[in-house]
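Support reply, case 0932

Customer input (verbatim):
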Amino acid sequence: SAVWGYTKISRPEEASRVWGLSITPSYLDQVDIFVLHEGELIEHLVAGDQVVDPKHDLHNRHHIVEMDFPVGTFDLYFRLKTTSTSLMLLKMIPEAEIIKFIDLNVILEGALIGVLFTMLIINLINSISLKSSLFLSFFLYEIGIIVTILLSVGLCDIIFPSLDNTEHNTVFKIGIMVTAIVAFLFFYRLID
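Our regenerated output:
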């Protein structure tokens, strides 16, 4: 099934001609963007973890595509096809800001993963030195969170290079379920 959306955009002469369109979250399967000018299709862009658009893709993991908008008013239709959530955020980034936007996303992603790995090591040390099953269950919960984040930001190709896109989605869904179970066990131990 697919969900359709629509918006109207206008580019005045003084505005940037080239724009990046960022689509999040990164685990969306496929988003088709149709750009119409005066009722005529002028561009079809595709993004998502199940498709590749070599003509427009700006980053291999973050779904950011590039579009050259002439002056005028445009109808922007987007079709979301996904087996996961139907929540989608579409951002338009002017050409001068695209590289900074990509760099910031990668830096923040790396910082989050770094903090989680640091917490993981601290809780492993605590669980061993204190012989506490509570810290051990939190350690397992953190492993689940880290794996889920690594899968959700598109690092499946690095973690599981032999799997195709459909199998990546299956691994991601299993990772979320395992993380939820371990989270339940951790919170159960915490209140017990």
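We compared this against your earlier run and they match. Two observations from our side: The mean pLDDT is 83. Residues 98-130 form the longest helix (33 residues). Please reopen the case if you see a mismatch on your end.
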